[in-house]
């Protein structure tokens, strides 16, 4: 096993353990998030997006050969329909794909069902792709769009500004939850 793969495995296990300890292996957290009663999942996702965005921009700026960034085309209908299916699947299963794997790794039985459902859905999409491509992919293909290129701004400062905005949303959600807890007392 190469050092990169070993590092990835160790990082993944540690991250999965941290998510399990934080309660992400139970479907209730996702369900409360979808009902807007608990913003833990949203705050973690926004924080991960901010950190990943700044990390990718930093790599692309200072070590582009290590970044391996490939921007995919924006297929509007595909994104909308895929997002709808993804959201409905999360609501039914009570898991997103990452938390289903954390649940599975933590021995939670319904995590296995969620993982199997996700794999079945992916397989069904592969089979249906030739028929779906002219409907969902080809119409409204906006090409490879990035925020910093659209705004004609440097990548890293744009990522930092977005990270600050996402951090502000996380801060606001924390205050909102604190206020709601105080009102319940």
Provide the β-strand percentage band. under 5%
Shape: globular
Overall tally of domains: 1
Q: pLDDT under 50 segments (min length 5)?
A: none
Separation of the first and last Cα atoms: 54 Å
Number of strands: 0
Helix content: over 70%
What does this structure look like?
The chain has helices at residues 3-21, 27-34, 40-62, 64-67, 76-93, 97-105, 109-137, 147-150, 155-184. With 185 residues, it is mainly alpha-helical. The protein has one domain. Helix 3 (40-62) packs antiparallel against helix 9 and helix 6 packs antiparallel against helix 7. The termini are far apart. The relative contact order is 0.13.
What attributes does this structure have?
mainly alpha; 185 residues; 0% strand; 9 helices
Q: What is the element layout, followed by pairings?
A:
Layout: H1 3-21, H2 27-34, H3 40-62, H4 64-67, H5 76-93, H6 97-105, H7 109-137, H8 147-150, H9 155-184
Helix pairs in contact: 1-6, 3-9, 5-7, 6-7
